[in-house]
Amino acid sequence: MKNAWKKAVDGPEKDLTAEIEGFFKDGVFHWEREPTLMGKLQDATTMGRVTGSCGETMEFYLKIQDNRIADVRFFSDGCQASRACGSVAAELARGRSIDEAISIEGDTVLMVMKGLPDEEVHCAYLAAEALHEAIHRWMLE
Question: Domain 2-140 adopts which CATH fold?
């Protein structure tokens, strides 16, 4: 009986995983499943928050030392694509100079992710915009 229950539970989960993997392109799925650098940075130097037209909010927390992003975290209340894009943007920004990090755009995130479905492309731009907001706030302080 235990094996029948396990098979009934595992079957739909495996089908769903295959469907998600098919939805996201090759480079995206691992960020979607296991976003890196997600969370709030308690000792952040600056923070930026942006709410997109889709209603999802993205936050970036930066610890800046010597004009470099020494540490970074992001948080999103959005979908899996939003979290994946936040993860990519955070990874791209970590260790970069402010000038290098400000050049990270939505197109940069899309290129690293090897694209997204059309209805999720806005998530890459939301991530870049939130990163830029955190940098701009730091520049104004």
Answer: Sufe protein. Chain: A (3.90.1010)
Task: Give the tens place of pLDDT for each residue, 100-119.
Answer: 999 999 999 999 888 788 99
Instruction: List, as one string, the DSSP characters of 69-92.
Output: EEEEEEEESS-HHHHHHHHHHHHH
What's the start-to-end Cα distance of the chain, in Å?
63
How do beta strands 68-76 and 46-51 pair?
Answer: unpaired
**pLDDT tens, position by position, 63-76:** 999 999 999 999 99
Contact 120/86 with Cβ under 8 angstroms?
Answer: no
Contacts of 98 (CB under 8 A, 6+ apart): 64, 67, 68, 69, 135, 138, 139
